[in-house]
Specification:
about 210 residues, mainly beta, 6-stranded antiparallel beta sheet, about 15% helix, globular
């Protein structure tokens, strides 16, 4: 084989390998990446200047899958409202993939009901102009279908039997479109705050107090 032919063969092999790596990376990328919203409260800053640290705080955290709008009409109308997102489940997982999870190191008071520190699943019951925030003790399964009858994947097979509380959500129309679903904490202080979800032009929120 001539030097030129050898060079061409080597270039072709590199191109094929690079294409294979790119294809593998494309396949491995999840359409709805994992997301986290977290806040820390009830601590205090200790020290001065660059040595200042926040100590003794307690965490409240939401973990969820972050679907992208990708040009879809998300909500629907009438009897079809929420059907695209529920995907045959009775309620919305308020995210993607594994059930949305709330972990709190402090008791939280929502709609005059207290939930103890621990881990919970979050769902939203979607109705036109009326969303209901649901905190549940259903465990989350990483597998679909779930291999554990006491755990759910997303909101499939959800029943209200394990609901800890339900609360109406405040709905607001945003002046812009949020492309990727986002949970966030708003107006936080040591007494409480607001837990909110944004997607498309909708902001839905529920206030809470810290026990």
């Amino acid at each position: 084989m001539t030097r030129r032919a050898l060079g061409l063969a080597l270039s072709a092999a590199i191109a094929i390998a690079a294409g294979s790596v790119a294809a593998t990376a494309q396949r491995a990328r999840t359409p709805s990446p994992d997301g986290t919203a977290a806040t820390e409260v009830r601590g205090k800053y200790v020290g001065n200047g660059d040595g200042t640290v926040y100590q003794g705080g307690k965490w409240i955290e939401v973990t969820y899958g972050r679907p992208i709008k990708r040009g879809r009409e998300l909500w629907g109308t009438g009897a079809d409202y929420g059907r695209l997102l529920n995907d045959t489940a009775p309620v919305w997982r308020a995210g993607a993939n594994v059930s949305t999870r709330l972990r709190t190191e402090l008791p939280l008071v929502i709609n005059n009901k207290t939930i103890a520190p621990g881990e919970y699943s979050l769902f939203i019951d979607l109705k036109p102009n009326s969303w209901t925030f649901i905190v549940s003790t259903w465990k989350a399964s990483p597998d679909f279908p779930s291999r554990d009858p006491a755990a759910l994947y997303g909101a499939f097979d959800y029943t209200p039997a394990k609901d800890v509380l339900r609360a109406p959500m405040k709905l607001e129309t945003l002046p812009h479109v949020v492309d990727q679903l986002t949970w966030k904490f708003l107006d936080m202080n040591d007494a409480g705050g607001v837990l909110a979800i944004e997607w498309d032009k909708v902001l839905a929120s529920v206030p809470f107090k810290i026990g």
